[in-house]
Write a structure and sequence with these properties.
Distance between the termini: 70 Å
Radius of gyration: 27 Å
Mean pLDDT: 81
Number of helices: 13
Strand content: under 5%
Number of strands: 0
Order of helices and strands: HHHHHHHHHHHHH
């Protein structure tokens, strides 16, 4: 047997075992790395505000704490308002259940040619052995799982806040530590990329905030005209969720006002659905490309593709982080290599 054969077999087994170990380690630490990525994103977003407060004489730790506290208060307030709205609508639905069932059944019979008996539907809802009660009883275990998931989400949110605090408060020290391991030329590259990441992350948040404001205002006008319950709260819900949760955000955001309006008046729910669909097309083709290009210098097609790719890799979190990541990569690539004057034949017509 040649001498290299045992060595090759040993290296093959070592490589296989190492691959299995790294894969197992990655599976176990993926959640931790995802928390770090989210924390870094938030730290980059609040760094300009932290720097402004620090220049006015405030310590970076206190400045970071104030900004994070403000973000937490706004988020908790938003969730509390929407939770109260849903709870009020659910209570109203329970109190006026029979009337809602009668109206919905009448609407279905009048528009779809059916002959459903409203009294039979109400009796099936009250039947302790009926399908509705069976479904509710089967969801008891899911309620416990939902409570455990809520506690896990709360722990993850606290972990993100803690990591964000350290990354933002010790940002300059972290940059100095990284640069101390590199040559001066490499240090400049790191600092340029860091500043570019801060700029693009800030541009992403500002563009999303502007789009959320425009979306909330226009949806408020539409919901007010249609007559949906709590038009201001629902408009804020649609504006915020649809902008800060790319790709699938509009479906998540639109479900709540449609559901609450259908429960009240089915025909109004169709108007709400129609407006949301029409506005989404207007935003995709007219409003969002202009704001995204101005704030992030990112092509609309690249932004859409980055959100899809990020969502495929990291789920909803990746869809959110995909846009600023794409903007940073585009900014880095634009500063690399030489640029040449474009010949007349490549200019194209109408540009």
């Amino acid at each position: 047997m040649p001498r290299w054969v045992p060595r090759a077999i040993l290296l093959l087994w070592l490589g296989f075992l190492g691959t299995v170990f790294v894969r197992e380690l990655w599976d176990r630490l993926f959640g931790f790395f995802l928390l770090l990525v989210i924390s870094l994103f938030i730290a980059l977003a609040i760094e300009p505000g932290t720097n402004r407060l620090a220049r006015r004489g405030m310590s970076r730790g206190l400045a970071t704490s104030l900004i994070l506290a403000a973000v937490a208060i706004v988020t908790i307030g938003f969730v509390a308002v929407m939770g109260a709205l849903v709870a009020d609508q659910a209570g109203e639905l329970a109190d006026n259940r029979d009337g809602y069932v009668t109206d919905v059944v009448a609407f279905i019979n009048d528009n779809f040619g059916t002959s459903i008996d409203a009294d039979e539907v109400i009796d099936s809802l009250d039947d302790p052995n009926g399908p509705v009660r069976d479904f509710l009883n089967s969801q008891a275990d899911r309620a416990i799982q939902l409570g455990v998931s809520a506690l896990s989400t709360l722990f993850q949110a606290l972990s993100i806040l803690l990591f964000t605090f350290y990354l933002a408060a010790d940002g300059p020290r972290l940059r100095r530590t990284i640069c101390s391991w590199l040559r001066p030329q490499r240090q400049r590259v790191v600092l340029d990329v860091w500043e570019l990441a801060v700029e693009k992350t800030g541009g992403y948040l500002s563009s999303r905030a502007i789009l959320a404001l425009v979306s909330s205002f226009l949806h408020w006008i539409a919901f007010q005209a249609i007559g949906t319950p709590a038009p201001i709260a629902l408009a804020l819900w649609v504006g915020v969720i649809s902008q800060f949760l790319p790709v699938i955000g509009i479906y998540v955001a639109g479900a709540l006002p449609i559901l609450l309006t259908v429960v009240d008046t089915p025909i109004k729910g169709l108007f709400v659905l129609g407006f949301i669909v029409v506005y989404q097309q207007i935003e995709n083709f007219l409003i969002a490309p202009r704001i995204t290009a101005q704030k992030m210098q990112l092509h609309a097609g690249v932004a859409f593709a980055s959100a899809i790719i990020g969502g495929a890799v990291l789920g909803p979190t990746g869809a959110i982080l995909g846009l600023p990541a794409a903007a940073v990569i585009q900014g880095v690539l634009s500063s690399v290599g030489e640029r040449y004057e474009v010949v007349d034949e490549a200019q194209g017509d109408g540009e």
